[in-house]
Amino acid sequence: MPHTESDEVSDTTRVFAALADDTRWQILQRLGRSPASASALASEFTVSRQAIAKHLAVLEACDLVTSERVGRELRFSAAGSRLSAVGRTLDAVGSGWDRRLEAIKNAAEQSR
Fold this sequence. Notes:
Strand content: 5-15%
Structural class: alpha+beta
Strand order of the largest sheet: 1-3-2
Radius of gyration: 19 Å
Distance between the termini: 51 Å
Helix content: 55-70%
């Protein structure tokens, strides 16, 4: 089934909803520096391991983090490609607004 613009908007909305939580944003920033397990992250944050696991599940559901089994441990990493895609979406929105504002400015100047 092809990926539609509506799917992209929904995905982007889920990403922003996930990142609206300050703890998830901090976890994502931390994982951007190096991979870590939920237990390691729990030792660095002021929330329980269970809460970290829930935050990681939300981030993973939005494809913002990936997990890899290393021995008995599940290590999480930030998914740069997903963040880049979100950045491109924001750039496209910004460009659209820039074009609209330029058109308004031109129309206002021509009506003088």
